[in-house]
Amino acid sequence: MIIIGAGIAGLSLGWQLARRGLPPTVIDAGTIGQGASHAAAGYLQPGLDPSPVTDLEWTSLRATPGFIADLQSETGLDVDFRTDGLLRIGYAGDEAQITADHDARRAAGWQVELMDGAAARALGPGLSPEITIACWLREVSWVDGRKLCAALATAIRARGGQVLENRAALEVTSENGRVTGVNTAQGPMPASRVALAAGHAFDRIAGLPADLPASRPVRGVILTLGMPAPLFTRLIKRPDGILCPRSDGRLIVGVTRVEGDMRDYPDAASVRALLDSAIRATPALADLPLIEAVHGFRPFLPGDQLLFGASDSLAGLYLSMGHGADGYLRMAEVSRRLAEMILTPQTT
User: Phi and psi dihedrals of 122, rounded to 5?
Assistant: First the structure.
């Protein structure tokens, strides 16, 4: 069993398979979790519009604490999973929008609380006096994605699987309509089953079915600040980004979202815009050190479609694609369902 892609989609699937007695080989053109999974805050917030995908996201959100607990117990590695909720903040002029969003979420069954700026500052003392309204989404959680990807790779290897870095998939090979393996720059790798969980450039791989949609990458820049003393313990959602505290003293400041921008570096204008917005929300951030600026390309598909399951046109090929910015949210449930599909004998 080969899995193409060592981001959160491929690694979570790999661990689910390894736990069920099928330790896979996970390959990646780069290093573990270095694509979109690396440039992500890792927060888990289901969609609001009723749909099968939203239902899946809620199921996955509820399954995530158990998923994380099992992984941490198995590896002894802490992945900094936090369940303190999200505080969506607004300024003068944002009140109607945030109130409407609160009302819609409450009607949909969310655990939400609307508050004024003073109450928001009581929950996050570092927040700006400009803030006039906030909504606390109690069910939102978050995880350090880099630590999570590293722990998943450790767990896969401990159960007899492999995670091979710097091994790009060049072609999925097949014969008579059935997968036979993957060709890489280091040579062929035979396999009767292959899962495609690659990132935004998956459509550069030869041999894939013609009915797969094209990649639709969405570029994002995200920053890390050092936060010696906690300014807040909840995830803060600004009108144009997020502030995500880590337990080790880092603060994640994100994130831009631009389609059609393929610059392969974090540009100065994006960094400045993120910092300006973050400092407006929390003025004390102006004195903190800037530790890192990174970028990534979120793996969207046209129409924001989500594909996971067996390929309709190539036997032995399985898909986990189109997670966009929600790979961490969906990981627990998508990986479980897809692992069971792969391991369930198919009848013809």
Answer: -65, -35
Rounded CA gap, 67 and 16, in Å?
A: 10
Q: Is residue 348 part of a domain?
A: no
N- to C-terminal Cα distance for the chain?
A: 21
Q: For residue 229, how many other CB atoms are within 10 A of its CB?
A: 8
Q: How far apart are CA 94 and CA 98, in angstroms?
A: 6
Residues 133 and 280 in one domain: no
Query: What confidence score (pLDDT) does residue 347 get?
Result: 46
Q: How far apart are CA 221 and CA 296, in angstroms?
A: 7
- Domain CATH number, residue 285: 3.30.9.10
**82: which DSSP letter?**
B
pTM of the model: 0.95
Q: At 239, which amino acid appears?
A: P
Instruction: Tell me if 223 sits within 8 A of 253, measured CB to CB.
Output: yes
**Are 241 and 106 members of one domain?**
no
**Residue 66 corresponds to which tokens in the numbers above?**
């158990």
DSSP 160: T
Do residue 271 and residue 128 come from a single domain? no
Question: Which residue blocks in 1-91 are alpha helix, DSSP H?
Answer: 8-19, 52-75
110 backbone φψ class: left, alpha, beta (φ>0; ψ -120 to 50): beta
Question: What is d(CA 313, CA 211) in angstroms, rounded to the nearest whole number?
Answer: 8
**Burial annotation 114-138 (CB, 10 A radius, 16+ → b, else e):** bbebeebbebbebbbeebbbbbbbe
Cβ atoms within 10 A of the Cβ of 59, count? 17
pLDDT, tens digit, for every residue of 63-98?
999 999 999 999 999 999 999 999 999 999 999 999
With H, G, I as helix, E, B as strand and everything else as coil, classify residue 223: strand
Task: Decide if 272 is inside a domain.
Answer: yes
Average pLDDT over residues 46-60: 96
